[in-house]
Design goal:
Helix content is 64%, strand content 2%. It is built from 14 helices and 2 strands, in the order αβααααααααβααααα. Helix 1 runs antiparallel to helix 2, helix 1 crosses helix 6 and helix 5 packs across helix 6. The protein is globular. It starts with a helix and ends with a helix.
Length: 250
């Protein structure tokens, strides 16, 4: 129930029901058939929920769920303490899961899960299970105002001027961000450490560790996939022909 409610809160920009239906189908399929997908989602959810509760209760409060559920208005609303617990649990998790799904589907990233037994699918799942790669905070996925919590979660793109494109490389926007950090690091220390900073960042980065697991026979294809996404992120062209020329030039 929590999953369906969360997915109903995630909205696309400009695609209507097609993108939403496809995302729901892929997520439900992966939850049912891929244990590591469910484990990765669960781990990220747990970390985000823990962060929220720690910020909500500066002094550690044990058994917060039954305490909230036992409130008179909650019992009156649901009828029993058990139903109240389930309702509170769903209320707490649904917006966090919705925000997480919206982040994971940046640039239609979830569509990559449509083809199983590929290096892209395997890399997607491995990266999902490395929570350090995402470095997400509760505020990254759920934006709260003073009195209300975010009701709808929009899937955004990282293409030029917010353009949403179909990514070819799993989590390519995170790879782009990491490479940008490395280049910035080298620029800062240029002429002083002879590239040591780059090697340190590459070697210690979980995202680079996972990229190194791509089979050697797929290295060229992986590079091509990233280049396509990279071009979409930095160029404004939407025309396939012109985009192809730019990719070949790069």
């Amino acid at each position: 129930m929590c999953v369906q409610r969360a997915m109903s809160m995630v909205q696309d920009t400009g695609e209507g029901g097609i993108g939403i239906t496809n995302r729901i189908s892929l997520i439900l399929s992966c939850l049912q058939q891929t244990d590591d997908f469910a484990i990765g989602i669960g781990r990220l959810l747990g970390l985000l929920l823990l962060e929220k509760e720690n910020s909500s209760f500066p002094i550690k409060v044990q058994n917060w769920l039954p305490l909230k559920a036992a409130a008179i208005n909650m019992i009156q609303k649901t009828g029993t303490l058990r139903r109240a617990c389930l309702q509170i649990f769903e209320n707490e998790l649904s917006p966090i899961l919705a925000g997480l799904i919206a982040v994971l589907d940046t640039n239609k990233n979830i569509n990559i899960l449509g083809e199983r037994d590929t290096w892209q699918f395997n890399l997607w799942i491995r990266m999902l299970n490395r929570h350090e790669i995402f470095d997400l905070t509760y505020q990254d996925v759920v934006r709260e105002s003073k009195d209300t919590e975010q009701a709808d979660f929009i899937v955004y793109g990282t293409g030029f001027e917010g353009y949403i494109f179909q990514s070819k490389m799993p989590f390519s926007w995170l790879i782009y961000r990491k490479i940008s950090e490395i280049l910035k690091c080298d620029s800062t220390f240029l002429g002083q450490i002879d590239g040591t900073a780059s090697r340190a960042v590459f070697g210690d980065s979980p995202i680079m560790e996972e990229l190194s697991t791509v089979p050697s026979e797929n290295h060229e294809q992986a590079i091509d996939c990233y280049i396509v996404d990279f071009v979409n992120m930095i160029y404004s062209s939407r025309e396939d022909e012109e985009m192809t020329v730019r990719i070949q030039m790069d």
